[in-house]
Amino acid sequence: MGKSKKNKGGRGGGGGGGEDQFDGGTDVDSVSSVSTALSDLQLAQATEQVSSQDYVFDKYIDDLYEKRGSTREAALGCLVDAFESFVLLDLVENKYATLVSQFINSIKKGSIKEVCLACHATGLLAITLGAGSSSHEIMDESRLQLLRVLQTWPDASKMISALDCLAVVTFVGATDLSETQLSMKAIWDVIHPKSGSNVGIVRKPKPPLLAAAVSAWALLLTTIVSSKRNADSWKESITFLSALLEAEDRAVRMAAGEALALCFELKLLDVFSNEEVEVDTAEASGSKNQLFLNMQALKAKISGLVYNLSMEAGGRGADKKNLNDQRDLFQRISDFIKTGECLEESLRIAGKHGILRVTSWRESIQLNYLRRFLGRGFLKHAQDNGLLHDIFDIKMDRTENMSTTEKVT
Q1: CA dihedral defined by 178, 180, 184, 186, rounded to 10 degrees?
Q2: For residue 356, how many other CB atoms are within 10 A of its CB?
Q3: 253-285: per-residue pLDDT in tens?
Q4: Mutual angle of helices 207-221 and 156-173, in 10-degree steps
Q5: Residue limits of the Interferon-related developmental regulator N-terminal domain (predicted)?
Q6: Is 292 helix (H, G, I), strand (E, B) or coil?
Q7: For residues 232 and 205, what is the distance between their CA atoms, to the nearest angstrom?
């Protein structure tokens, strides 16, 4: 996580929006507004006119208070574009409380499009601020509304957006294990609804939602490497994930495979021997031995399924690209299970020396998730965002991207 300290601030909350849906011509107006407003922000940034940046940014915020839904949607779209295009730390440090308040209002009352944009903007705001008191406050303020979305099972796109947002704000903002576990439990209740609160109808997530939920859960699992590693505590989750390796949907299988690779890396399937753990009774010793045998059998089952998926034949009409992606992923997982070694990945982010390297499943899952969430803004954030520098231990050579004049001065 990032280590920079953030000051609390903001101009306070404000009025929410209505529940109105899209107006006629909204898409054209929104695209035009996003393009124009983003160009304004780019011009202000390029000329280092801080007052102009503030003016444009404040205009976005003011539009979030508007009653008309299409106006709020356009403002959220502009903010998402701005957060992706720049690392706007200086602009948001004293405005984040206002922003998150209005984002929550949009999540609570907005159209499907507005909710999705607001969830994305909330996660991007947390990434911009980095780890610290500000992002922790964002997590605290937004989590309740995000949990309500997950508990009501609305439109699938809303659910996926809420899952992504909850995962990101918790990943950045959580300061202790209990906070992370609370979000993981909420996400697991989407993955495996029977384990959730006792409601009348047991819902079953469709493949896109299920794959998104497994990926979100795995992201948060990467942050609890120092927690207790009692195999008995993880047996149910790992067993269910292993069953997903046989799901019909390829994206679900791949998400489950990555999560299980992380479980192997964290040694969540390992059981301490009786010599390492104090055993008070013969009954306890027998239970420990049985758990050991169960987990060994589960390891063997997963290993076999992973190998089969790495060798899966295409068949007529198969999507060859996705099939090859699956084979490559499960070949890497199979090799890791056998050798304990994770294949190193590298990504050039700037010049000769700006290389991002990942050498574990934990880092690989974090990289893939943040890369997808940041979209086209990933490269910019990898170069300039202290949070990503801390997560991946990126050390940038700043002189490479400077002009001759800048180097001299």
Answers
A1: 70
A2: 23
A3: 999 999 999 999 999 988 765 434 455 565 666
A4: 0
A5: 33-337
A6: helix
A7: 26
Measured in residues, the chain has a length of 409
C-alpha–C-alpha distance, residues 8 and 10, integer Å: 7
Q: Which amino acid is at 208?
A: P
Placement of tokens 């940046």 in the chain: 53
Sequence-ordered alpha helix ranges (H) in 110-176: 112-129, 133-152, 156-173
pLDDT per residue as tens digits for the range 42-51: 655 544 555 6
Closest CA to 173 of 59, 6, 332: 6
d(CA 123, CA 284): 45
Sign of CA dihedral 153, 159, 165, 170: positive
Q: Residue 387: enclosing H or E segment and its boundaries? A: helix 386-392
8 A C-beta contact, residue 218 and residue 364 = no
The set of residues, in sequence order, having a beta carbon less than 8 Å from that of 258 and lying 6+ positions away, is: 215, 218, 329, 333, 361, 364, 365, 368
Most trustworthy range by pLDDT among 219-233, 260-274, 290-304: 290-304
Distance of CA 380 to the CA centre of its chain: 18
Tell me the C-alpha distance between 388 and 386, whole Å: 5
C-beta pairs of 352-360 under 8 Å, 24+ apart in sequence:
352/397, 352/400, 353/395, 353/396, 353/397, 353/400, 354/383, 354/394, 354/396, 354/397, 354/400, 356/382, 356/392, 356/394, 357/392, 358/392, 360/265
DSSP class of residue 2 equals -
Q: Which two structure tokens, joined as six digits, stand for 152?
A: 């009501």
CB 211 within 8 A of CB 251: yes
DSSP assignment of 184-198: HHHHHHHHSGGGSS-
- For residue 90 the two structure tokens come to 């200086």
